[in-house]
Amino acid sequence: MKFLTWYVMIFIVLVMLAGLATDSLGKMQTLQQALTIAQSAARAGTNAATGTSTNGDAFDLSTQMAATAAQNYLASADVRGTVSVTGDTVSVTVNMTYEPHMLGPIGLPPIPVEATGSARLIGN
Predict the structure, then answer these.
(1) Could you tell me if 90 and 63 are in contact, meaning their C-beta atoms sit under 8 angstroms apart?
(2) Beta-carbon neighbour count of residue 90 at 10 Å?
(3) Half-sphere exposure of 75 (CA within 13 A, CB side)
(4) Beta-carbon contacts of residue 59 (< 8 Å; ≥ 6 apart)
(5) Cα 1 from chain centroid?
(6) What is the per-residue pLDDT across 59-99, written as a single tens digit (0 to 9) for each?
(7) Helix (H), strand (E), coil (C) string for the chain
(8) How far is 34 from 96, CA to CA, in rounded Å?
């Protein structure tokens, strides 16, 4: 019986380590998902370019159209984010939250995740 306390303590430590590993991987997966959405929204913004390239003409990137296209992509993905258009580059920052599955019930709060992606319109 004197080792029962040690077994219980070792079990609790192992469960905590398993929870830490599981929730760390879950946070990394959420970060990867946020990055993918940010990059895709930025590409959607650059797709708002106007002009033709068949004759070698340069594309024009409408700031308003690019921002609207990127915001529409974020809305369709049901995530929050910000869009900025500077010159021929669209940058998107996505904010998501990971809810811990194993350590959440014992007090680990939701973990905010932020990722930024950008796309540049390539001209001549």
Answers:
(1) no
(2) 29
(3) 6
(4) 49, 50, 51, 53, 121, 123
(5) 50
(6) 677 788 889 999 999 999 999 999 999 888 899 999 999 98
(7) CCCHHHHHHHHHHHHHHHHHHHHHHHHHHHHHHHHHHHHHHHHHHHCCEECCCCCCCCCEECHHHHHHHHHHHHHHHCCEEEEEEECCEEEEEEEEEECCCCCHHHCCCCEEEEEEEEEECCCC
(8) 7
The gap between the terminal CA atoms of the chain, to the nearest Å, is 79
* Residue listed under structure tokens 């992606």: 117
Write the single-letter amino acid at 17: L
Record the tokens describing residue 26, joined without a space.
């879950």
**Span 7-39, pLDDT tens digits:** 889 988 998 898 889 888 999 999 999 999 999
